[in-house]
């Protein structure tokens, strides 16, 4: 890759701080995902939470991918609007979200929606609400295979939940969902061993389950475990971050060859003292959940240290201070692209080194129509 691949020739058309989306890299990443599953796009269920853009959804659909995973009603809505065949909301619905979800089902009859549950009470409420709306709801049981964030463990409680589904006339059991986002070892062999260890009991349970439910599906993982789960033909994989890629996963997942498709554009706005430059990239523009040295990596700065961030400012110590000018453009890779995307309303679309368009990050909104 050329050292200056990221340079935008008409950068004066790109405001800052903002996100530049390199559409050729997005297409490359999508094609790489499809290639890794040998063209069997039915084994892909990419997560929408990373990109949140209808235009990116169109690119995914044009590649033959038609099934998706989402975290929010808004993400599911843009997928359905784009023509998705199916969308799984992999987030247990509570409160008004249940009614919103059922309205979504009623509005998009050509898209099959599903969601997850991990307890009888949630199943009971969803069944009752579906009955009132005269709808049926597809359900995957969320399995806790060690992350301890959500899901139910393999054991008697899971057996009881399976049995309970048999008396829920408005819920249709579709299979198991297992997310292992806590396993991110840099060494692929170690990561794979841990992932498979976590999946051992899930696999055993799943195979037994298929005696009564031969059409049951097993939906697994995210981007870190994508290259492990794709090795098992019966598993449906759910990568998401790899559509845009970021510094964090590029650092950890060396076996995955995706390209950076979303960069942060920032400009120098002050040189307050010798050796210090200030940019307009504060923590309102880049995910700030990590320590200061794990937020962005600048591509056209050398020998620098990001010292601090406030809401609209980033303070950087640099060598060769004299060579930098107010207004200079800096390009950087976010450490975590998913929450960074969620901080912006739109992206500048870059093709052949020029800004050609603007795409809305529609699903950053918590509510669209429903």
Q: Could you give me the name of the CATH homologous superfamily of the largest domain? A: Alanine racemase
Number of domains: 2
For the secondary structure, the number of strands is 16
By CATH, the topology of the largest domain is TIM Barrel
Oligomer: single chain
Helix content: 25-40%
Which parts are unreliable, with pLDDT below 50 for 5 consecutive residues or more? none
Count helical runs.
10
- Could you name the CATH class of the largest domain? Alpha Beta
Distance between the termini: 43 Å
Radius of gyration computed on alpha carbons: 22 Å
**What does the largest sheet look like?**
9 strands, mixed
What is the 3D shape?
A: elongated
Backbone structural class: alpha/beta
What features would you describe in this structure?
The chain has 370 residues and is of the alpha/beta class. It folds into two domains: 221 residues, Alanine racemase (TIM Barrel, Alpha-Beta Barrel), CATH 3.20.20.10; 107 residues, D-serine dehydratase-like domain (Lyase, Ornithine Decarboxylase, Chain A, domain 1). It is 30% helix and 24% strand. Strands 1, 9, 10, 11, 12, 13, 14, 15 and 16 form a nine-stranded mixed sheet that branches. Strands 2-3-4-5-6-7-8 form a seven-stranded parallel sheet. Helix 7 links the parallel strand 6 and strand 7. Helix 2 packs across helix 3 and helix 7 packs across helix 8. The longest helix has 25 residues. The protein is elongated, with a radius of gyration of 22 Å. The two termini are 43 Å apart. The model has no long low-confidence stretch (mean pLDDT 97).
């Amino acid at each position: 890759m050329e050292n200056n691949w990221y340079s935008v020739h008409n950068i004066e058309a790109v405001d800052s701080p903002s996100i530049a989306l390199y559409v050729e890299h997005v297409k490359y990443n999508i094609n790489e995902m499809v290639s890794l599953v040998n063209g069997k796009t039915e084994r892909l269920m990419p997560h929408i939470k990373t990109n949140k853009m209808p235009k990116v959804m169109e690119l995914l659909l044009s590649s033959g991918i038609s099934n998706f995973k989402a975290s929010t009603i808004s993400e599911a809505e843009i997928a359905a609007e784009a023509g998705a065949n199916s969308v799984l909301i992999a987030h247990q619905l509570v409160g008004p979200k249940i009614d919103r979800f059922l309205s979504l089902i009623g509005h998009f009859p050509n898209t099959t929606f599903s969601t997850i549950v991990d307890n009888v009470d949630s199943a009971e409420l969803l069944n009752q609400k579906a009955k009132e709306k005269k709808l049926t709801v597809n359900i995957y049981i969320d399995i806790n295979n060690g992350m301890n964030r959500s899901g139910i463990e393999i054991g008697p409680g899971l057996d009881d939940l399976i049995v309970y589904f048999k008396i829920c006339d408005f819920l249709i059991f579709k299979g198991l969902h297992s997310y292992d986002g806590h396993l991110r070892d840099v060494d692929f062999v170690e990561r794979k061993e841990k992932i498979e260890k976590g999946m051992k009991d899930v696999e055993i349970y799943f195979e037994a389950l298929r005696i009564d439910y031969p059409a049951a599906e097993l939906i697994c993982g995210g981007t870190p475990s994508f290259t492990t789960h794709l090795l098992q033909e019966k598993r449906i994989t759910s990568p998401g971050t790899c559509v845009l890629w970021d510094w964090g996963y590029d650092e950890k997942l060396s076996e995955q060859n995706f390209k950076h498709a979303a960069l942060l554009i920032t400009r120098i706005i002050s040189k307050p003292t010798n050796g210090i430059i200030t940019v307009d990239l504060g923590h309102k523009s880049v995910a700030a959940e990590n320590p200061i040295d794990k937020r962005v990596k600048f591509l056209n700065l050398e020998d620098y240290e990001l010292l601090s961030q406030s809401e609209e400012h980033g303070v950087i110590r640099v060598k060769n201070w004299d060579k930098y000018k107010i207004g200079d453009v800096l390009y950087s890779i976010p450490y975590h692209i998913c929450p960074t995307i969620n901080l912006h309303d739109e992206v500048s679309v870059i093709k052949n080194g020029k800004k050609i368009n603007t795409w809305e990050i529609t699903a950053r909104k918590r509510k669209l129509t429903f």
